[in-house]
## 1
Amino acid sequence: MNNRFLQPIEEALYDYLPSADCRERKLVEAMRYSLEAGGKRVRPMLVMEFNALCGGKPETALPFACAVEMVHTYSLIHDDLPCMDDDDLRRGKPSNHKMFGEDTALLAGDALLTLAFDILTSDDTAALVGDKTCRRAAAVLARYAGASGMVGGQVIDLQSENQRVTYDVLNDLVGKKTACLIQAACELGCLAAHADEGKIRAASEYGECIGFAFQIQDDILDCTSTDEVLGKPVGSDEENQKSTFVSLLGLQRSKQMVDNYTAQAVGALRRFMGDTQPLTDLALALAQRKN
Amino acid sequence: MNNRFLQPIEEALYDYLPSADCRERKLVEAMRYSLEAGGKRVRPMLVMEFNALCGGKPETALPFACAVEMVHTYSLIHDDLPCMDDDDLRRGKPSNHKMFGEDTALLAGDALLTLAFDILTSDDTAALVGDKTCRRAAAVLARYAGASGMVGGQVIDLQSENQRVTYDVLNDLVGKKTACLIQAACELGCLAAHADEGKIRAASEYGECIGFAFQIQDDILDCTSTDEVLGKPVGSDEENQKSTFVSLLGLQRSKQMVDNYTAQAVGALRRFMGDTQPLTDLALALAQRKN
């Protein structure tokens, strides 16, 4: 996956951290630790690409890109805590609470979430995009990240553990837990460039579709890699109590869904006049990824 | 303490909660549970009083009042978690994680923090106060609640456990952990009424001073009530490893500080033309409270 905005994103992320020259240095170090453990930066890349597609300058979208990544990072820190998934590792490194203790990890997540809204509504960001756009961007992020969005999806996920859920529940879960923040990223990119409502809706559709495609492809990879290790038939969910698209629909129909969602995402790009190739490539790369 | 805005605040708080008619009902119930366990609603009262003092209509300030209370409530839920203070009780009721489990309590806190910014930046709030005021209010709340404010204070608090700290550290701790959110409330009240910068600064000074007076009075009450139970000399901190103003400065100088801060807070109200009596009374009531 080619992220042509990776370098400015990485630089800006750390520039937004508060100074570590204070008594609460450990907090800033914990925030930085998890930001540095970042993966492919898919969400900030989506902000930057939609902004570019709508004719915006990169520097205008950088605060929005960083805010979305801060929210994503906070959600991973809280997800890894012992009372949640209890993960000791995140992307091959010790998880935040393993490095800094549970208390600091909890607060580092809280601080990153708060920092996201600080960035979106600061005087500096307002000078770049105007008060209304700042205000709307914060509203979009809060709506998609909160109780009716990502956090709601996490609660549905908790309730779905160790039981077989219906397709409707799984759809609600993935839509909220995974797709919502990706949708927010796409909408924020359009907002940064002052795009019209039609374009924002199209970006939202693209985001929702690649969010689902991403999660279903994840389930497929989990299932096929597990099968290689265990030598068990594809699609068996005996070892995995959690319902996934693969366990509910089987491998073939799941692969079909990834293709359908990806096609719908690419189709939504027709609404835009500019060069849609980077976002088409991104949708295809996510669908075809092997890890 | 007379809170003439209590009823509209209570009503608005629950109106802002998402509908519980969803799969993540347990999350909304957990959010509501801790909001209902609310105490004196000092912070929303400050928003409403400063708004009134600056000539604003009550309904204009209600979203701001609710947002500050959401942030306060989230901080209490996370503070009570086993990895933090590990409190089973909050205001005589089981703490959130005792009722709903640690995972849901963590997420209820996250959702309340996010909801605060949702409220401040929604289209409805923008229709009441305008885009710029929404944007600035969110910026003020994020700054005072985040890594350089309340969350930073919580980290300093964690680092100060079981050791005697200097007066400078305690000052930094209390300023951030307690005073910052109270300052935010006072500033938000002025913002809701479109008050000028001089008034916002005066409100901020009032908030900082009553924040300190509140915390020092808390330390005094903790110390004197403990002494009644244990029959030990006032000011003894053998039982309490944590440094407080009383353990550092003694009871007499601490009482003097409460009086000084309260006088400074009341003095800051000179900047305002309207009826400052309610805020004068509030400062005095906080300083003289017995529980």
## 2
Amino acid sequence: MTQKTDHPIRLALSEDRADIYFARTKTVLEKEGLNPVVTMEIFPNGEGIICGVKEVLNLLGTVLPPAAEVWALGEGEPMQAKEIVLRITAPYQSFGLYETAILGILAHESGWATAARECVEAAGGIPVVSFGARHVHPDVSARMEYAAVVGGCVGCATPAGAELAGLDPTGTIPHAMILIFGDTVEATLAFDRHMPPEVNRIALVDTFKDEAEESLRVAAALGERLWGVRLDTPAERGRVTPDLVKEVRARLDQAGYQRVKIVVSGGIDPPRIRLFRERGAPVDAFGIGSAISGAPPIDFTGDIKAIEGKPIAKRGRIPGITPNPRLKRAKLT
Amino acid sequence: MTQKTDHPIRLALSEDRADIYFARTKTVLEKEGLNPVVTMEIFPNGEGIICGVKEVLNLLGTVLPPAAEVWALGEGEPMQAKEIVLRITAPYQSFGLYETAILGILAHESGWATAARECVEAAGGIPVVSFGARHVHPDVSARMEYAAVVGGCVGCATPAGAELAGLDPTGTIPHAMILIFGDTVEATLAFDRHMPPEVNRIALVDTFKDEAEESLRVAAALGERLWGVRLDTPAERGRVTPDLVKEVRARLDQAGYQRVKIVVSGGIDPPRIRLFRERGAPVDAFGIGSAISGAPPIDFTGDIKAIEGKPIAKRGRIPGITPNPRLKRAKLT
Amino acid sequence: MTQKTDHPIRLALSEDRADIYFARTKTVLEKEGLNPVVTMEIFPNGEGIICGVKEVLNLLGTVLPPAAEVWALGEGEPMQAKEIVLRITAPYQSFGLYETAILGILAHESGWATAARECVEAAGGIPVVSFGARHVHPDVSARMEYAAVVGGCVGCATPAGAELAGLDPTGTIPHAMILIFGDTVEATLAFDRHMPPEVNRIALVDTFKDEAEESLRVAAALGERLWGVRLDTPAERGRVTPDLVKEVRARLDQAGYQRVKIVVSGGIDPPRIRLFRERGAPVDAFGIGSAISGAPPIDFTGDIKAIEGKPIAKRGRIPGITPNPRLKRAKLT
Amino acid sequence: MTQKTDHPIRLALSEDRADIYFARTKTVLEKEGLNPVVTMEIFPNGEGIICGVKEVLNLLGTVLPPAAEVWALGEGEPMQAKEIVLRITAPYQSFGLYETAILGILAHESGWATAARECVEAAGGIPVVSFGARHVHPDVSARMEYAAVVGGCVGCATPAGAELAGLDPTGTIPHAMILIFGDTVEATLAFDRHMPPEVNRIALVDTFKDEAEESLRVAAALGERLWGVRLDTPAERGRVTPDLVKEVRARLDQAGYQRVKIVVSGGIDPPRIRLFRERGAPVDAFGIGSAISGAPPIDFTGDIKAIEGKPIAKRGRIPGITPNPRLKRAKLT
Amino acid sequence: MTQKTDHPIRLALSEDRADIYFARTKTVLEKEGLNPVVTMEIFPNGEGIICGVKEVLNLLGTVLPPAAEVWALGEGEPMQAKEIVLRITAPYQSFGLYETAILGILAHESGWATAARECVEAAGGIPVVSFGARHVHPDVSARMEYAAVVGGCVGCATPAGAELAGLDPTGTIPHAMILIFGDTVEATLAFDRHMPPEVNRIALVDTFKDEAEESLRVAAALGERLWGVRLDTPAERGRVTPDLVKEVRARLDQAGYQRVKIVVSGGIDPPRIRLFRERGAPVDAFGIGSAISGAPPIDFTGDIKAIEGKPIAKRGRIPGITPNPRLKRAKLT
Amino acid sequence: MTQKTDHPIRLALSEDRADIYFARTKTVLEKEGLNPVVTMEIFPNGEGIICGVKEVLNLLGTVLPPAAEVWALGEGEPMQAKEIVLRITAPYQSFGLYETAILGILAHESGWATAARECVEAAGGIPVVSFGARHVHPDVSARMEYAAVVGGCVGCATPAGAELAGLDPTGTIPHAMILIFGDTVEATLAFDRHMPPEVNRIALVDTFKDEAEESLRVAAALGERLWGVRLDTPAERGRVTPDLVKEVRARLDQAGYQRVKIVVSGGIDPPRIRLFRERGAPVDAFGIGSAISGAPPIDFTGDIKAIEGKPIAKRGRIPGITPNPRLKRAKLT
């Protein structure tokens, strides 16, 4: 993973990822001999959970001179709209070029973390797992999953994302494997034969037969070794409903499988999570896809508020430093 | 750039970017000695512009055996909801692991290209430039800008994105540089002194003074060398309005600067583009940020529809190949 | 059935079904020696399909003297709001008491016929069957089904209703019977063994297993003798969707059962009928419940407009006969 | 009335009022020699006031064998959506045929009782009378009025309905009688001459003249014998408004007729009842028509939940008995 | 009338009706010796009918020097939002003080004229009369009525307004007079006795009795001399409805009074006018109150666009004269 | 001012400002010899602040005989819809003609006072000044400003209005003067040179330059003599926003001009006032235009409720005096 955590910084440091006008500015300032110490303040346009601070500090640690001063909120803290979350005081040429990268890291990762937090809060204690890597480009899927965990998810699906987040990856069985075996029970038994014991056996029960029927079949076939079932009913069959969860729970219990858990996925978002809870559906875990991974970025803005200690600002902004007692001085390495 | 266009494939090929259950499936199938030739069909859940096909075919070219057959829509073509856009027939083990990457590439890039197309269609012939790299993680900002150009943008802001798209990068002057010079005219004159002649001189005119006043000042200072002005009025000053554009145009014209163009940016999206056009505001180019880069991904789904030539499908899907005469056979290399 | 068509008239003729004030009025008029020839006009407060005319004329034929004159629209004709649909000229005492019954017959039956017509028009040629006897009191269920057929339904479920409408009753197999047999195929085979050949074999396929799976099982078991399947998926499983119909159709066709028809029921109403048609779902017949049987009555009003040939009316109404060339003179027997 | 309360049971027992598939099921089960003891549970799809329980128990008493067990809510009790209101344990053949009738009785009568309750609750203590027999078929008008009284109405208009409900019928004077007399005062005086003293004299005051003027005229003519006036202003004259009631009250009081009551009718429903109360209109009673009699039935569903004591259910329902401590064991006779 | 048309100008010329800052400006400019020739352009913020032009030109004729140039739209012409309706070129001190008065005259009168036009257009040829003097201060009621006639009304109620508009005043009989006589017929007969023959006899028929009844009574009493009836039913009686008009028309016609016209008033506005027409109510004239007299003023703005022939403007406006070929050169006297 | 306060009464007394039917009524009553003592009650159709009472009592004092009795609410008191605000008992001929004027005075002035009160309440203690004379006819602009002060405004702009209200007029500097001087600072300095010291120096800062820049320029130029700045940003520049006020305040404070106040104007209405307060914008005063002067009149109605002491009323109203303990006996002079 060393290789992976290093690489985005290397890329971000590359000037070809910066808006071209920052490179041109650097050229002009160098030729004019201008490199004042400036204070830049960064704030989001909406409220949420900040994420990406560690990656940004990593980047700044690589480029700023020792005398530079950086104050920031902590990774995963809540932030208000317009609240200053990061303040950099340093010679402009040392970091001006990286404004695009800094804002982009915070925008994208905070968007994901904030969406994850909304799901987690809606779930009120029921574990939430991020399953949405398939909706984002593979170059950022690990970042997305890391942000989802910062936002409160207890698991994610890709090894790269799990490693960034310090977890083991989570997964069940894909529809493809069941189709190849031609029967859910056969596929689940094969999975059970070949997977190490520490991997939970979670059967996906909506491929060929009604979910309730299939749940009872796999429970009978795997016995004690079945950890749970996943309901992922497609929209064409009405998606997973609170009543379906209640019925599967009741039928499993009536057959003596109280121990088998129920994981729910497929188009799950905060309103639907609340619906499951209001209707009293006994869900043991939610798998969330695009409600987290498709969340919009939260825009961040960077403003120069002082030059050589003198307050300044463009029209529309108030010159000088905006106090925020929640900021902590960052140690750059 | 060669290095960069290669690299995402390399990463996507890495199994740590795949949902873990695909790796586990591969293990189980290998141990069971199962590797049937399957046909997988991929379709979007919404309509739009498809983007990422080239990158996906590049990936498939690396992993599929020669006998495999792939059919796809062309990069940038329109697609309908549920339309089959990609069909792969190959031994499952050769590509099953890459389903996460394939879907993620298409989802993210098609989301951006579709949003760009909406802006371009709203603009009705007025050029649209993508300025939104700052809202996405730097690891995918170049992919976003490439997709924006596929969707119809005539320019983008980062060198990496521009290279992917086969263009030169586009930019003006950042507020930071004007603040450091302390005067818009001074900053623009310095830019003019040091930039090569092929770079357009576009003054940003909302930093210190009223936009109309500042436009006349820079036009007087740069004379023939001024290509245009950019209006980027902040929300605190009411954003750029159609009336502002009309007035700046009129005042420039009255002073003899008919030749100076007007670029509009700041919170621009399709409804606001339409407003500018309905009100007859003489905009020469739009700079778009989060309306493109913050667009949600378009979900894609991959379904196995045949195994060894025999139609199959999970519940909710129709077994067998779905005809789509728009697909073309792809040549993998 | 003679007995049944007689009986409601007998009841309606009974004064205990009339609003008490009509009986009191009769008493007062008799004691005052008043029995003028009046003209009463009856109109609906909303538009729709008129139904109940035959039953009303039957009633009037029993009570009116030979000199009375009655004009009416024909059973099942369209009517506008406020259009005169029935005009009675007769001595008031001969029919005044039956105003409650006359208005009630028209209100209730026209409400059902109008709702049926809306379903039939939404279905655009696909046959519609009334299955909603279970939502109305058994004393009027046959009247409701008769009205549904007047409104355009091609079938109904109870023998009494079917007899009134001149049809054979229509039905499939109830969930109760399948539950008792414990298997859909077993139940359907038993049905097939014991029913006369003229009864269509229609299997209900959502009781135990997924509808697509069960459809293929019963088709295989009954072969040529299976007329069709009925999809009646409960709300807890997402109700019948257009995609479900398309998939069952496709799977039946792929297995060679093109001949097996698909009947759709369960919460069907005009908006959902239109949805099935817009999405191109190949439905062969709709079974409608409360969208017809639970339809609100259409209020009718009876106004005296002339007394002994002299125009009169209460406040709010225009005295005298309202011309309506669509009315036809009724022959009372 | 003995005759009348018997007759609907007789009809409901007739198999021609059952959905045909129940008769066919009976035939099949007989031929297969199947007659298991089943438990059927019945529940409504919406909340309200249950009505029809007595009639259903009457029916079941006629058909069930002595060993059968029936549990039910009491007539007129509140019920929740999906709450079990009736549970029958008996050999299936003994009652399966009557499912249509049982559900229809409960659906239609509970719909009316629930609508009546809404009116009564809106009226907050002001008496409510059901006047809507004219909107339903005469075969069920008495059932409707019985249900309205179960829902809380203090009176109803037909002798048959009143007898079922154990009341005397309530009525005023119809417009027809006033039109025949040609003057409201003349008609009311004639009514007064010929009606027995226990019948309240309630004058209908909107036929020929303004309501306030007419109220004073009848009060002067009948003196102490006038119980009240009924305002039934037609829509063409703006219906009865709170201001009209207040004015008529004030004018009656100013003339010394404080004792004369005001009954309001004509398109009255819960929102309009609330309006009268919010505006402080001194209404003494409301006459309600289609807001009760045109209420939609409340759908009920019957599910077999156990066969020979073993839990079972169709897909979407939970097998086995659903506990409901509010049910009471019914004594069948 | 000379006195009246003179007087508002006299007042407007008085500096105490001007915003105080215009007087102060005059003082400062005089002390500084500044009195440039300026061009002021005046435009409305919304579209409508311009009114007040004559009064404004009258005022300008009194104060401007002979060399001044004024261009204007004609009284009663349609105007677009932002269209220049008045252009004054003159020494600033000669008219600057009157900006408040000029804008106020145009704003208030154009607001009334525009509202009148909307009523007139809704009425589609049925005459419209302004009856709303009672909603505005008596100092401007004549101006309001003049504007209503400019907007298309065929009559108005006060002699002063009628004189300004060049008409005779229009009126019926007030409720007060009928109350004093104690009977509508008595009051109308007295009116008939004492009014000169050229005054139309229009009876107000909603004071004591139902409108239909009263209409027939006055028609019988006045015979040929009754020109029409006015329906002005109060809100407490449901206001005038299309059905009421139709019924009164029918009853008058049936009694042989086809010649008697029907005037409708009471809360009439464009939506209600359209309702009467859509429902086919035979209205002969509408009396309009606050829908015209309570109309909001249309804001006007005056901008200096040139000083001594040189284009100038404040921020937000385009310097120099805005061409409008619809303007005509005004002859000031 | 004596002349001015007298004149509207003189006009209102003139019969040419009355609806013509009142003059005709007077003629008829005189010829019939009828002049009963009547009681007329006047009430508004909506709630608000009553204004115009003094002017009405002035008028009545001129025309009523000594024995007349008048009860009224006090000027500026709150009133409810339908509450009696004025009760006149006098011979009808002495005041009947002035009903139009009395209702018009109350309607127009109460409309303005009520709108002013809404602004004042929204402002929660921040002073509100009426600047809207330019939206009403100059004949009533003083009345409008008087009413605005009755409603709670602390100032108004015309000398005539201020005199009626007992205040000094309030004003800043018009755009016209700044345009003539060609520079905001030059114009403000000239104003300062020639105005007496008791006039506040308030600079209008949106004419040529950005408001923040211009504020600092005038503060530097006038020093201690500058009382405040007025922000009146046009819609074309986004109007005044809470952020603009905050920024101007911050920049003035940073430069040491804490003492300079900020006046906000331009399209201000209660919702926008609340927005400024919710966002914490440090506004020192609001200038209100059409939100007060363009307010709709509040309709008033006058009803005769007794004649010679005997209760009477037209249909829809309750005869006799309506008690209102808030009324006070008025002393007429």
